[in-house]
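Input/output pair, single chain:
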Amino acid sequence: QVQLVESGGGSVQAGGSLRLSCAASGYTDSNYCMAWFRQAPGKEREGVASIDISGSTRYAESVRGRFTISKDNAENTLYLQMSSLKPVDTATYYCAANGGWVVPWDWADNYRSWGQGTQVTVSS
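Output:
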């Protein structure tokens, strides 16, 4: 019922910034909780940040203070502003959504809708 399409990925140097977008369509009223995950080759999918319908946010400790998750409800778009990027941030970034409360927020299996991913590469 929900379609998610990420964009905004690319290659940047360490210390740079990048903004990812996730356009949601379909039954967006079901997007009670939305999140960004990332996955590097050979590693598990990792929760980066989440935001719920009230605007409450959560972040992985590894990105806290550097990344900001936000959403534009009128445009049905989720954003991830990434600053002070590090090579360890290199990964495919995925947008995810779920219709209810997600506990824990950073468990990928708790999300029912996923985007196709967008690649972020940070060089040293």
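Residues 51 and 57 are 4 Å apart (CA to CA). The two ends are 40 Å apart (CA to CA).
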